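Researcher: We are triaging several targets before committing to wet-lab work. For this one, the compound of interest is pyridoxal-5'-phosphate. I'm pasting the protein sequence and the ligand SMILES. What I need is the predicted three-dimensional arrangement of the protein with the ligand bound, expressed as structure tokens, so it can go straight into our comparison scripts without reformatting.
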Amino acid sequence: MTLDFDETPDRRGTASLKWEKYAGRDIIPLWVADMDFPSPEPVCLALQERIAHGVMGYTLPPASLAAAVQDYLAEHFAWDIEPGWLVWLPGLVTGLNVACRAVGTPGDEVITATPVYPPFLTAPPYADRKLVQIPLRLDQGHWSWDFNALEAAAGPRTRLLMLCNPHNPVGRVFSRAELERLVDWSVRHDAIICADEIHCDLVLDENRSHIPTAALSTAARDRTITLMAPSKTFNIPGLGCSFAVIPSDELRRRFRRAMAGIVPSVNLLGFTAAEAAYRRGWEWHCRMIDVLRANRDRVQDAIDAMPGLTSWPVEATYLTWIDTRPSGIAHPAAFFEKAGVGLSDGGEFGAPGFVRLNFACAPALLKKALARMAAALGVNDD
Ligand SMILES: Cc1ncc(COP(=O)(O)O)c(C=O)c1O
């Protein structure tokens, strides 16, 4: 089995969203959250085998895939689910938008904490819901929910809390105590929690582990829509296969109702890849996490040496959130693009003055990008 993460395939000319953005320009793309690593070999083999069959008809979610997900959740998170709780989705962003439509009625309020993955900010207004943003707290170098602000934000029309855990972009893995406070809040205010846990298999900090919110208690289970996917974990986002776990029959019915006639089923290759990944992708995953840890450290060291830039320990994800405001650079994403590095603009996450760096690439490419950033800031990179 090939487990080489140093030599990544050339993605130029493959219509890659990440690479196409800078086609023909010498800009290293470290923006959208996909990895430059090839997917696990068992996934590629399963896809080849399925394609060799030749018939690509309408496809049901395979019962064997539901069993694979059930086993995965039990083994990795000690979370026992029933296959009937699963709702398959062609994308996790679809799930965020469906959740906003399924909970409450137009004009109701949806709370989330910023900065956050941009679709959290657009899903509520797309569903005619009012978005209420509360800033995450940065206390002594540690990002967390601001529970006082959360309490103050709750009103008679609050219906939904959108939680990103692990958090994109600040990289936190929220603790049991933090999650319990969020659940306690949701019980007191009779709100539903939509927990986007797409980064749950990308915990890099050895002292942290992911806890699915819904697994905390019966109260949590009954009011949580959990959104997960193999897409980030095994680098198969182009195959569009995600799922919601909704234990409450009533909530699941409302969710399915909001999808009806609009959300298509997952394509058969997405199902095939997901099952192979959850069953046989973990050896690859283990090695990939080591590579991400080394890249994370490389980024942290480099940013620490850049004047006017601050980053925080990345507990999970392959994304580093960087505050450039002390540097005085007016438009940091444009500044670094000019220096040959394509980062995500924090403004899209509700935080102008910040940038997000995706370090899921070959170490040599990452080193080159960091050297370009350092040079642009006048740092001698010996
Ligand atoms: C927190 C989060 N949710 C959802 C997604 C995207 O999910 P999908 O591509 O399945 O719509 C991403 C991708 O970066 C993400 O970071």
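Researcher: Any quick observations?
Model: The mean pLDDT is 96.
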